[in-house]
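Q: What changes when D-galactaro-1,5-lactone is included in the input?
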Amino acid sequence: MSLDKSRRIVFTGSAGGIGTMTRPLLAKLYPGLVLSDRVEPKDLQANETFVKADLTRPEEVAAVVKGAHSVIHLGGHSVEGSWDQILNANIIGCYNLFEAARTADVKRVIFASSNHAVGFYPRKRKIGTDVTVRPDSRYGVSKAFGEALGALYADKHGMAVTCLRIGNVGYKPLDVRRLSIWVSPEDLVQLFQIGLEHPDIRFEIMYGASDNAASWWDNSRAHKLGYRPTGRAEDHRAHAEAEQKKIGPDPVGDVFQGGTFTSAEFTNDVKRAGP
Ligand code: 15L
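A: The predicted holo structure follows.
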């Protein structure tokens, strides 16, 4: 049965970078969209509904999720942080979200995972979504946790969960690494739509990437579910290469998919890192 688009769809983290780029596109598709975050988006429109919620407060999460059909969960800490920050926003916050969703009988959750859940795979290896996670940071570990939590709620409670290992969302790839992992806001919204509407979803992991010739990822499952990306990183290669020239070499980060997330705090021998 297809989704009644006026049903309540809660969008956590909607005031953040990805939220800001995708909100207007989602609003056109889903009139029942309810934006949520710790702070109100600066450019909130008169026709948009916003409910403030802090993910670390279960009662606030329960209040925003109540009556929702689906949740797009982008909320949390979006880069590497201290253990305290990651624990609160991405581990406890993610648990609070899934538990509130279960209690409210939410049917579908889209979880914003990240390429950093598998950041220690080398760039020279193409990976699918069935590989063992190799997080490159505490942040990456929290994304692997979110994927595992999603699998638990799918298997144990029948929630339809889609985890998107998002690359880098933007209007163009920012550097040479991003030529492999870039995703346009339009293509990401297409993946949200699949997660919200495809009848076969039980538990899925897909890569949040556009049609990138230099991709390190096999995203065939997304394609099977109807994903037809329109963004092509190669169209922006000159820009990405020019930007790359401004960045110095990174002997660790240049080897692995996760880039600077792998080299930060790195104390290993590069030959011993990754699978
Ligand atoms: C991410 O997961 C981050 O949220 C984003 O800020 C970028 O750093 C991106 O990964 C990336 O790998 O470029």
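Observations recorded in class: The chain has one domain: 9-272.
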